[in-house]
Design brief:
Blueprint: E1 9-21, E2 30-38, E3 43-48, E4 51-53, E5 65-78, E6 86-95, E7 98-108, E8 114-125, H1 130-139, E9 162-177
């Protein structure tokens, strides 16, 4: 195919949700993750699962860390970079009161080639009233969003009251095809001084 005939580029994302950190420790019987990958209207998924659920996990020797090692792989084609894919992670717990929310994290999938490790803050909605806050503290059940995908769009969540509650550690890599041929430069910045030292 000639370069003048290329109208789409391909992007392959490889991710792994390594673990979740809770600063005060984990007080639930079991923790699990749900993820959704969201993208703009010009993007077409070619392969991979755009939603999934992890196994149940508990903290090991470190009471603040719950390890998942959940792999996520997706391949997309697109005509432009608008609507770049994002990963939305929902952390839930199962305890004596049933399932309850522990928080949401949003991660922009990597726009440059290569591997990286990122820490995404885990946030959860705050109850609207003092009584709601007291009940959330007593039962461990916090308000949940009707659709967690709204977090990918900043227009709808600017009035949302949240509190930080830990972080999610994600390892990601990206490989592209024909992106440079369409005029986009997605190479990571070169080392300026003392590379590799």
């Amino acid at each position: 195919m000639k370069e003048s005939e290329i109208t789409k580029f391909l992007i392959s994302f490889n991710c792994r949700i390594d673990y979740v950190l809770f600063p005060g420790g984990v007080f639930d019987d079991q923790i699990f993750l749900q993820y959704d990958v969201v993208w703009g209207p010009d993007w077409d998924p070619i392969s991979g699962l755009n939603t999934g659920t992890s196994q149940m996990a508990m903290p090991g020797r470190d009471p603040e860390r719950v390890v998942f090692n959940l792999p996520i792989e997706m391949v997309f084609s697109s005509t432009n970079v608008s609507g770049w894919p994002q990963l939305i992670i929902t952390v839930k717990a199962r305890n004596t009161f049933g399932e309850s929310l522990r928080g949401y994290a949003v991660v922009l999938l990597p726009p440059t080639t290569g591997e990286r490790k990122t820490s995404a803050p885990l946030t959860r909605p705050r109850p609207a009233t003092l009584l709601g806050e007291w009940l959330a503290w007593l039962t461990g059940r916090y308000p949940e969003l009707a659709d967690s995908k709204m977090l990918a769009n900043g227009k709808e969540n600017y009035l949302l009251r949240t509190e930080s509650y830990g972080s999610v550690i994600v390892r990601m890599s990206m490989v592209s095809k024909d992106l440079r041929k369409l005029g986009y430069d997605n190479q990571p910045p070169a080392c300026r001084n003392n590379c590799g030292k």
